[in-house]
Amino acid sequence: MGELLSAYVTYRKLASPSPRKRHLLGADLFHLFAFSARYPQGLNARTPLTKVQEGVCDCTWGSKKVRILVLNQLPKEPRNAMLHLFTAQKDLLEYGAQHFRQRSEYTSSLLERLWERYVKEGVPMPITLEEFDRQFRAAFVKKLTAEEIVKALPTEEIVKALPTEEIVKALPAKERVKGLSPEERVEGLSTDDLRRLLAARERLPDDKPSDASK
What we know:
Blueprint lengths: L1 H14 L16 E5 L4 H6 L3 E4 L2 E6 L2 E7 L10 H4 L5 H10 L9 H13 L7 H14 L3 H7 L2 H7 L2 H7 L2 H5 L4 H5 L4 H13 L11
Parallel strand pairs: 1-4
Antiparallel strand pairs: 2-3, 3-4
Helix pairs in contact: 4-5
C-alpha cells in the first residue's frame, strides 16, 4: 500500500502543470486500484476492508481510498476472464483460459504465453518468473532461423559456443593458415602429401617475370 501511494503521489506531480501544491491536479481525479490473488487477511486485520460487491472491496489508507480486486472471488464472467488467468484456483484458471479474448495487438507477451499454456497444455503447476522467462526464451528461439540467431549474437558468443574444429572449417583456406610458419602449415602431412605438394608447386608458372618479357 505504501508503494502504491508513493507511485500515486509521483504520478500526480508528473501529470500536473507544476509540482507545486497550488498547481497540482485534484486528488479526486486519481483512483487507486490493487489486485490480490487471494483475500488479503493480513491487511483486513490491520485496516478493515469494506465489501463493495463480490470480489471487490475498498480500503482506506491514509487520505486515499484504494479499491482492491480479489481475483479468486470475482464471479465467472467473460469480463473477468483475463484476471482469472492470474488466480491460484484451478477452476478459475480454466474458466479464464476458455473465455479470454485478446482485444489488443499490444497484449503483453506474458499474458499471451499464460493463455497459450493454459489452453494447449492445461493448467500447470505454479512456476517462478525466472523459470517462465527461461521457457519463453527457449520457445522463442525455436521459431528463429539459424541466420536470425547468428545475426542477433555477438561474434565472441558464437565462437564460445562452437568447437574449434567447426570454426576452422567455416574459415576460407587462406584464413586457416594465416600467421602460421611454413613448418606449422605442413605439420601433420605425410611424406606422400608433401611430395604431391612439391610436384604441384613445380608445375606452377614462375611468378617472376622472364627475360623475354622485359
